[in-house]
Amino acid sequence: xxxxxxxxxxxxxxxxxxxxxxxxxxxxxxxxxxxxxxxxxxxxxxxxxxxxxxxxxxxxxxxxxxxxxxxxxxxxxxxxxxxxxxxxxxxxxxxxxxxxxxxxxxxxxxxxxxxxxxxxxxxxxxxxxx
Length: 130
Hints:
alpha/beta, 2,3-Dihydroxybiphenyl 1,2-Dioxygenase, domain 1, 2 domains, three-stranded mixed sheet, globular
């Protein structure tokens, strides 16, 4: 039985990486076990590790669910200077999504539920886990 998960991105300068991801997540890391490494618990049991090293080419994207993809995109353009990324949708897909990269080449992204009732159910499921 799987009870938690972690995924890791690598950055050449962990202090700069920690600063960048702190802005992305609007908070400091939850755990810094040693030099060259920081972790955020994104939602209950799901951790993102930022480690010093070389980014893996062609990995990802790792996408995070948000309630307003347009405002999050604008925040990242303003606060992190990322390039404006396109937001996609398809009739048969229940979300709209977009992909961007961190300064080290790790591919990230956001998605937003189109059905706001479904989004509220997903949020409640996450909140119930806490």
